[in-house]
């Protein structure tokens, strides 16, 4: 591969051709992050009960008073939320309060009180997101920055955490920095996709070479997780609060969680918890490279074109979790998936040196993304698999242990916060990424 480097600062501005398109999909100069840091509070005094509990959430979780505090507040209307920033802020606040209520006792709570469920359902409906702590709530809309660049990990800090530890803030902010780091590749790869129609191999190759460098930068950010996030703190003090209610029977939620709406209607919901699988950036890279994922994320490998026992089509995990992304972002991914395919062009018989170079760059890019997923598996091993085998003296309800299968601590049985069979799912996702680049060798 060429030894040249590409500075993101030279590529971070949207071209005029893409500015309106990306703006339509709520994609900013920071990619899937907002253009400015999110609101750090709802200034309307009416919402002080929510904000007050959130400000003291970690101490309430430690002394087991969070549920009592939440039970004491009234049902607040969402009518005083006006801007999208305020709706997003409400979503973040209610996500933290909901998960604190569900996981903040000796046992998991199967019921959310109306003071949380009613406004949470309304806010979620407005934003077209599920009423659960998604990647958007924990990462995209939950940070502040001391500098001008969201790419600078050392200048980022989470607005809220469950544990009030630097470890938890760092855990979230690594993902935020990665989102910002990859932002410049969005318009760059759009240009590459557009270039496939006219078979502009030079443009595609240049974009793929930049992508390889970018993925390497993302991997280096991921490798910084160890700097300020201790695996034992993550596993025992942070991870228990990140889980959803899907595939969580072993943790005390066999039916999921019961929500009540403003009409008094009760509904059980089984929802996935926050997961990096909900990152639109990573799914964007998959789409532009033609990576196809088939795992449903359960204990059995299920293909998206197969049907369940009831005849219902079973979506892959990656298809399903798009509904956990902000609506404009998942609409953008759908738009990109309809564009011409670099992978298909790379599979065509080679007739020129330019085409051959493009094919080599495509293969190198898919390998880079596969290697990135391999790095992620190593992080999972250090932060989940290894700590699951160690004893911890603490009073936190440890979902991580409770959600293991029949063999305590078995890496084959551990369930991710997103409700997936952890290691088998990650292995398959990695292997499918490598496969995308190997297909053309058999063409």
UniProtKB/TrEMBL annotation:
How far does the signal peptide extend, from start to end residue? none
Q: Does the keyword field hold Transmembrane helix?
A: no
UniProt KW Cell division keyword: no
**Residues the record lists as binding heme b:** 376
What's an example Gene Ontology biological process for this entry? Answer: L-tryptophan catabolic process to kynurenine
Q: Which domain of life, per UniProt?
A: Eukaryota
Q: GO CC annotation: what is one?
A: cytoplasm
Cite the entry's keywords alphabetically. Answer: Heme, Iron, Metal-binding
Q: Which family does it belong to?
A: Belongs to the indoleamine 2,3-dioxygenase family.
This one is known as Indoleamine 2,3-dioxygenase
- Species assigned in the record: Daldinia eschscholtzii
């Amino acid at each position: 591969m060429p030894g040249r480097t590409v500075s993101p600062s030279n590529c971070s501005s949207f071209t005029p051709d893409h500015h309106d398109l990306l703006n339509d999909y709520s994609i900013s100069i920071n990619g899937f992050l907002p253009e400015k840091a999110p609101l750090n509070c709802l200034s309307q005094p009416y919402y002080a009960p929510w904000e007050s509990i959130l400000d003291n959430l970690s101490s309430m979780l430690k002394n087991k008073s969070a549920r009592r505090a939440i039970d004491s507040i009234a049902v607040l209307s969402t009518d005083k939320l006006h801007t999208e920033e305020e709706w997003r802020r409400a979503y973040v606040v209610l996500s933290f309060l909901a998960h604190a209520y569900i996981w903040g006792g000796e046992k998991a709570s199967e019921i959310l009180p109306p003071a949380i469920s009613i406004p949470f359902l309304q806010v979620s409906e407005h934003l077209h997101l599920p009423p659960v702590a998604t990647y958007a709530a924990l990462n995209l809309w939950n940070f502040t920055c001391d500098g001008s660049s969201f790419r600078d990990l050392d200048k980022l800090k989470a607005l809220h955490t469950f544990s009030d530890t630097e470890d938890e803030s760092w855990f979230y902010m690594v993902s935020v920095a990665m989102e910002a780091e990859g932002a410049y590749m969005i318009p760059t790869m759009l240009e590459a996709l557009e270039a496939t129609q006219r078979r502009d191999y030079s443009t595609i190759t240049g974009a793929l070479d930049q992508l390889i460098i970018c993925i390497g930068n993302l991997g280096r950010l991921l490798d910084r997780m160890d700097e300020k996030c201790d695996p034992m703190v993550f596993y025992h003090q942070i991870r228990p609060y990140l889980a959803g209610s899907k595939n969580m029977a072993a943790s005390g939620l066999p039916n999921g969680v019961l929500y009540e709406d403003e009409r008094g209607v009760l509904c059980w919901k089984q929802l996935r918890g926050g997961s990096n699988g909900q990152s639109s950036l990573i799914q964007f890279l998959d789409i532009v490279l033609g990576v196809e994922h088939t795992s449903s994320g359960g204990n059995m490998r299920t293909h998206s074109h197969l049907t369940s026992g009831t005849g219902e089509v079973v979506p892959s995990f990656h298809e399903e979790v798009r509904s956990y992304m902000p609506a404009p972002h998942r609409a953008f991914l759908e738009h990109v998936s309809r564009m011409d395919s670099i992978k298909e062009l790379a599979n065509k018989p080679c007739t020129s040196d330019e085409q051959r170079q493009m094919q080599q760059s495509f293969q190198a890019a898919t390998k880079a993304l596969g290697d990135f997923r391999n790095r992620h598996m190593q992080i999972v091993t250090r932060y989940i698999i290894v700590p699951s085998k160690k004893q911890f003296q603490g009073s936190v309800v440890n979902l991580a242990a409770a959600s293991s299968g029949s063999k305590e601590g078995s890496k084959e049985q551990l369930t991710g916060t997103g409700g997936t069979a952890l290691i088998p799912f990650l292995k398959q996702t990695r292997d499918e990424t490598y496969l995308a680049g190997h297909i053309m060798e058999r063409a």
